[in-house]
Amino acid sequence: MSFNKDQPGSKIKPNILKELDVEYQQFNQGQKVRNQFGEIRTVLRQIGYQVFVEEECNGHYHPSKLFSIEESTTFKSS
Prior knowledge:
The protein has 78 residues and is mainly β. It has strands at residues 32-35, 40-47, 50-53, 66-68.
């Protein structure tokens, strides 16, 4: 089913169809992140609100479901 915003009688206003000006956390290629399950992933690329990781070939994460891993939080084993 296709939607034509110019269709007569349409109840949806054209400005609602635009992408909202929402700022998401930005990730860089190669950055290590942790997902909501605690698994460490490597960012492949980010397109808007889709973050693709190297470890998963299908699907993507929403930026709110990924947490950046600080380099200073790595622990040394004694």
